[in-house]
Amino acid sequence: MSNMKTSIDPAVNYLLPLAQKAGIETAWDRFEAMKPQCGFGELGICCRICWKGPCRIDPFGNGPQKGICGADADTIVARNLARMIAAGAAAHAEHGHHVALTLLEIGEGHALPYKIKEEKKLRNIAERLNLNPEGKDIKQVAKEVALASLEDFSRQKSSIPCNWAKETLTASRVEKLVELGVMPHNIHATIAEIMHRTHVGCDADAVNILLGGLKGALADYTGMYLSTELSDVLFGIPEPVVTAANLGVLKEDAVNIAVHGHNPLLSEIVCDLAIKMNEEAKKAGAKEGINIVGICCTGNEVMMRRGIPLATNYLSQELALVTGAVDAIVVDVQCIMPSLAALKECFHTEVITTMPGNKIPGATHLEFSEETALENAAKIIKLAIDAYKRRDRSKVNIPDYKETAIVGFSAEAVLAALSKVNPEDPLKPLIDNIVNGNILGIALFAGCNNLRVTQDHNFTTIAKELARNNVLMLATGCGAGAFAKHGLMTQEATEAYAGDSLKEVLTVIGEAAGLNGPLPLVLHMGSCVDNTRAVNLAVAVANKLGVDLDKLPVVASAPEAMAEKAVAIGTWAVTLGLPTHLGIVPQVIGSPLVTEVLTEKIKDLVGGYFMVETDPKKAAVKLVAAIKERREGLGI
Amino acid sequence: MLVKKTKENRFIYVDPRRCLGCRNCELACATAYADCDLQTAVTKGLQLQPRNSVVQVDDMVMPIQCRQCEDAPCALACPTGAIYQEDGFVKINEGSCVGCKVCAMVCPFGAIIITQDINDNGNRRTKKAKARKCDLCFSRQDSDEVSCACVEACPTKAIMLVDYESYRKKIIEERGKELARAHSKTKVGWK
Ligand code: SF4
Ligand code: SF4
Ligand code: SF4
Ligand code: SF4
Question: Is the pTM here over 0.80, yes or no?
Answer without folding.
Answer: yes
